[in-house]
Amino acid sequence: xxxxxxxxxxxxxxxxxxxxMLLTRVDHNLYSVEETPVIVDxxxxxxxxxxxxxxxxxxxxxxxxxxxxxxxxxSVVACYLQESNALLLSLIVRYEYRxxxx
Length: 102
Description:
Elements: E1 4-11, E2 16-27, E3 30-33, E4 48-53, E5 59-66, H1 79-82, H2 85-98
């Protein structure tokens, strides 16, 4: 696979555009998702997506070609805790450490 690149990706069905989304080009119009965008539900980390390159260099999302085999987890965090970057970073680091040996 190639280098991880940043793209502006439009998810037309959701009416959402994600700036600076990290993707790796796998083939002509296939990309591996290198992050989980919070603003859309249709793609997750390491999914392979099909997207069309637009004249301005951005991508138009078409579909998920292959879903990642990784497990997905949804967490709900109270608003006042979201403002504590240190707390959130701590939770993320602990979660990644405990699940890095799967």
